[in-house]
Design a protein that fits this description.
With 213 residues, the chain is α/β, with parallel strands linked by helices. It contains five helices and twelve strands. It has a six-stranded mixed sheet. A four-stranded parallel sheet has the order 1-2-3-4. A two-stranded antiparallel sheet has the order 9-10. The longest helix is centred in the first third of the chain and has 14 residues. It is globular and about 45 Å long.
C-alpha cells in the first residue's frame, strides 16, 4: 500500500475519509510504504501524524520528503522523525531492510543533487523495492527491481488531451504519475493523498495504490 504526500493541514472530514480508506486498504496489504511529505510547514501539530498512521495494523516502512526537511523551522527534523516512528513507521534513511523476504531500500530527500543521491544509493545497495520521495531518482538508474515514488501529486491540475500543466520534476511531466518501465526495472509514481499549497485538483484524483508484486 503506497501512502504519500498526505500534507496534513488539520483534522476534518477529508482526513477522516482518508483514514477510513487507509484502514480499509491496509486489510488487503502486507506492508505500507510511506513516501514522504506526511506533514509540512502548515501542519498545526505533529500529533496528526500519529493520528493518521498509527491505526494501520501492518508493517510500515518510509522515507522523508522535501517538506519534512523544509519544515524544520517549525518542526525540527528529529521531532518529525520521532512522530513518524511513534506512528509505527520504520524510516529507511539511506539504508535497506528485509521484510517478508523482500529487500526494501529507502533514500532521504537529496535536494536534486545528483552526487548526493548517488552517495545515498550506494549506501542502500541493490534492493527489490526502492522507496524514494521523488521519481527523479529514475535518472540515476537505481539498482532496484521496483521503484516507488510520489512528490508530483500527478500535477494536480490536468487538462484534457494536454495532461498536467506543471510537475515538480527535472523531467517535466514525463513521470507525473503511473507505471513506467526503466530498463529491467519498474517505476510507479503515485498521485498521493493531499496537496501542499492549494487544495485543488482538476482531472487528477487523489490516489491510494495497492501494488501486487
Amino acid at each position: 500500500m503506497v501512502v504519500t504526500d498526505l500534507h496534513l493541514h488539520g483534522w476534518g472530514w477529508r482526513e477522516e475519509a482518508v483514514l477510513d480508506a487507509l484502514i480499509e486498504a491496509s486489510r488487503r496489504a502486507d506492508v505500507a510504504v510511506v513516501l514522504g511529505d506526511t506533514y509540512d510547514q502548515a501542519t498545526p501539530s505533529l500529533e496528526l501524524v500519529e493520528r493518521m498512521l498509527k491505526p494501520l495494523d501492518l508493517p510500515k516502512l518510509g522515507v522523508l520528503g522535501n517538506h519534512e526537511h523544509w519544515a524544520t523551522g517549525r518542526f525540527p527534523l528529529q521531532e518529525g522523525i520521532a512522530a513518524l516512528e511513534a506512528a509505527g513507521v520504520r524510516l529507511l534513511l539511506n539504508e535497506a531492510v528485509e521484510l517478508k523476504r523482500v529487500r526494501f531500500g529507502g533514500i532521504d530527500w537529496y535536494e536534486d543533487e545528483a552526487g548526493l543521491a548517488r552517495s545515498y544509493l550506494s549506501r542502500v545497495g541493490e534492493a527489490d523495492v526502492l522507496l524514494s520521495h521523488t521519481p527523479d531518482i529514475a535518472g540515476l538508474s537505481p539498482r532496484a527491481r521496483v521503484v516507488l515514488a510520489g512528490h508530483t501529486h500527478g500535477g494536480q491540475v490536468c487538462l484534457p488531451l494536454l495532461g498536467p500543466l506543471w510537475v515538480p520534476s527535472r523531467y517535466g511531466t514525463r513521470f507525473a504519475s503511473g507505471l513506467f518501465r526503466l530498463g529491467e526495472s519498474y517505476l510507479y509514481v503515485s498521485r498521493g493523498l493531499g496537496e501542499s499549497v492549494l487544495p485543488v485538483r482538476i482531472n487528477c484524483r487523489r490516489e491510494l495504490p495497492l501494488i501486487h508484486l
